[in-house]
C-alpha cells in the first residue's frame, strides 16, 4: 500500500490500516519519505513522442537506451549481490521536475541534428 499523508484524517486512516494489517501478520515494514509530485501524463506522452521523433530521424529504434546514458539523465543507486552502483533511473520513476529537465535536454539534442524537425502531434 502506498499512501500520501497530507492531514490528520490521512494520518489516522494510515494508522488504522497498519494496525489492521498487524492483527493479521507478525510484522509490517513502513517506509516514510518526502512526497514528490509524479510526472504528469502530458509529460509522459511528450517524452515518448520525442523519443519516437528522434528514433525515426536517426534510424535508431533503441535511442531511449542511448539517451539514458547521457550525463543529464537522472541516476539512482542500486545494489546487486552486495555491489552498489549508480544506474539510469527508470523513466517511469522520474519526478515532474526530472521529466521537465529531460524534455529540455531532448530539445537540445534535436537542435543539434541538421535537418531535424519535431512532429506537430
- The number of strands is 2
The CATH homologous superfamily of the largest domain is called NinB
Helix/strand class: mainly alpha
- The main sheet orders its strands as 1-2
- Overall structural domain count: 2
Residue ranges: pLDDT <50 for 5 or more in a row? none
In one word, what is the shape?
elongated
- CATH fold-level label of the largest domain: NinB fold
- Average pLDDT for all residues: 90
**Cα-atom radius of gyration:** 20 Å
Helix content: 40-55%
Work out the strand percent.
5-15%
Summarize the structure.
The protein has 121 residues and is mainly alpha-helical.
What does this structure look like?
With 121 residues, the protein is mostly helical. The chain has helices at residues 8-24, 41-58, 63-67, 96-111, and strands at residues 75-80, 83-88. It folds into two domains: 1-35; 36-121, NinB (NinB fold, Orthogonal Bundle), CATH 1.10.3790. The chain has four helices and two strands; from the N terminus they run αααββα. 7% of the residues are buried. The protein has a two-stranded antiparallel sheet with strand order 1-2. 46% of the residues lie in helices and 10% in strands.
Amino acid at each position: 500500500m502506498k499512501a500520501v499523508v497530507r492531514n490528520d484524517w490521512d494520518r489516522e486512516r494510515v494508522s488504522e490500516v497498519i494496525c489492521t494489517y498487524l492483527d493479521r501478520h507478525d510484522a509490517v515494514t513502513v517506509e516514510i519519505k518526502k512526497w514528490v509530485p509524479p510526472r504528469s501524463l502530458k509529460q509522459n506522452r511528450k517524452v515518448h513522442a520525442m523519443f519516437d521523433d528522434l528514433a525515426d530521424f536517426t534510424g535508431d529504434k533503441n535511442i531511449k537506451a542511448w539517451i539514458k546514458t547521457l550525463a543529464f539523465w537522472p541516476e539512482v543507486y542500486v545494489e546487486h549481490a552486495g555491489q552498489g552502483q549508480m544506474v539510469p533511473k527508470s523513466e517511469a520513476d522520474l519526478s515532474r521536475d526530472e521529466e521537465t529537465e529531460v524534455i529540455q535536454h531532448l530539445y537540445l539534442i534535436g537542435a543539434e541534428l541538421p535537418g531535424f524537425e519535431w512532429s506537430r502531434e
